[in-house]
Amino acid sequence: MTTDIMGSTGQPGPSRRRFLAGAGAAVGGAVGAAALWPAGSAAAASGKRVAVLGGGVSGLSAAQELAERGYAVTVYEYYDVLGGKARSMDVPGTGEGGRKPLPGEHGFRFFPGFYRNLPDTMRRIPFPGNANGVHDNLRSGTEALFAREAGRPDLRFPLRRATTPPRPVDITPSWIRDQVLSVLDLGTRLPAHEAAYFADRLLVHLTSCDARREDEWEKTAWWDFIRAEEMSEEYQISLGIGQTRNLVATRAQEASTRTVGRVIIEALLLWGLLGRGMDGDADIDRVLNAPTSEAWIDPWSAHLRSLGVEFVLGTQVREVVYEGGRITGVRVSAPDGSGARTVTADHYVSALPVEHARVTWGAALRAADPQLARCDELKTDWMVGIQFYLRTPTPVVHGHINCLDSPWAVTGIGQAQFWDVRDFSADYGDGQAYDCLSAIVSEWDLPGILYGKTARECTREEIVAECWAQLKDGLNDAGKTVLRDDDRLGWFMDPAVTGLGGPNPQNREPLLIHPTGTLYNRPTARTAVPNFYLAGDYVRTDVDLATMEGANESARMAVNALLDADGSDAERCRIWELYRPPELEPLKRVDEVRYRLGLPNTFDVG
Fold this sequence. Notes:
Blueprint: H1 21-28, H2 33-36, H3 42-45, E1 49-53, H4 57-67, E2 72-76, E3 88-90, E4 103-105, H5 117-123, E5 138-141, E6 143-147, E7 155-158, H6 173-187, H7 192-206, H8 210-217, H9 222-225, H10 233-240, H11 245-248, H12 257-273, E8 285-288, H13 292-306, E9 310-312, E10 316-323, E11 326-333, E12 341-343, E13 347-350, H14 354-357, H15 363-368, H16 370-374, E14 380-381, E15 384-390, E16 400-403, E17 411-414, H17 424-427, E18 435-441, H18 460-475, E19 488-493, E20 497-498, E21 506-507, E22 511-512, H19 518-521, E23 532-534, H20 548-566, H21 585-596
Parallel strand pairs: 1-2, 1-13, 2-9, 6-16, 13-23
Antiparallel strand pairs: 3-4, 5-8, 6-7, 10-11, 11-12, 14-22, 15-18, 15-19, 16-17, 17-18, 20-21
């Protein structure tokens, strides 16, 4: 095995994981279109053709919903593999002795318990031996590790949901405040008055009406909402940066309070710990039991093929053609520009990431629906994965790692511990690697600890060295050594990032971020053009965060809009929204009156 395993190009080679295709197709018909929509129904007999632009989570989700309703679906995908940012990929030249190549990825995937739309889709993707399809390939993380530098004790935070949820009568503002204070007192060095202030700010957000959230809090940065500038460094790192940059690649000084408070603090942490609004009896944090493509994407594409979905890979969408009030076709070509042609369908679902979708919308199409032009204001940033392959099993913690003091906002997870259907050294590589520590770098504009350069200024090798050093800085302290240099066999870095060390580094797969005002520029799945629909994590959904759940939810919205336009009698896609605790609704109604009168929230005492 080489010392360093590097992805060299921005375009992965053909997938070599085809062993699941036959099994997936064999059982796929059980939940196919014929089973859901009897022959002779309007949906099954329509024969309408739909072009889905993009083969990531949103595109595949839309394809599944449409195919189950009798539509003829063709998916056009830039890469020669499916899955978008969610896919895993083979590390070239690393498989020996009948083993698969080492698994690489854009960045580790996780499936919070509050996801409900995506898990519903996963249950409907057959997988041999699983009663609930690929959903049964999910495994729960039981802890999160908040690693601190300079020998400070790390915080291991339990992530199991409450087995005995509080009674409705218990969930009062004072009860919530006490719970938040107890957690902050246990896990941080915050001065008592700062912990109390943060708890009070959470109460303000929890009891704010929708109108206040969508106006006042959408325009307020999380940093300002919690008054981080006036507080200690501990407060800023733990409650500001750690909840934004490390988790969703958005700076606390810019991140929308509505998004951070509603999704990360409420849905993920507070209601997750209380077991409210979860996917069945799910825990807060879940991951897959094998590399993503093996456990999910390959069975998914096999199932979709069994439903009649066609895939045209290695195809770049150049322009969505608008004429006479409708979309009349899509100009496509190979990524290198060859093979240019126009493809046609009855309906078109644009499921490309926003940075790629908006360049395909010409002036006439933008004039037909002004919300398309507003998408130019949506922002993306870099969140890039690096995998370290280790000689010994190194789980660190049974869940995710958040290096709170890391200048590059490094997070990670030891993957082999969750891959209980795999033997890492026997199944991957050359037999020397026993674990994969998958890390993500989310801050690319602050200097690192080795070279004093930002990540954008570093070469690929320097970024890897910095990331490893920052992981060790957080984990190798307090008298213990978790990561050893001689344990590291090699590494793989997301090949979507190119030109590192040069004057103009590029990332073909950035992440949508959520600075203040983002909500107002997010489009709806239904456009003003009657045969054109949008799907993707940038589309306005209830989850309001760039996630696989948002991608799936937007696809359901797009399909429902298409069914409406078609006058179809097919059942509409069910859409789950984020949990709203009924105990707090009376306080929100009070706040709605106060908001209309121009008064602050009852708990907003300054």
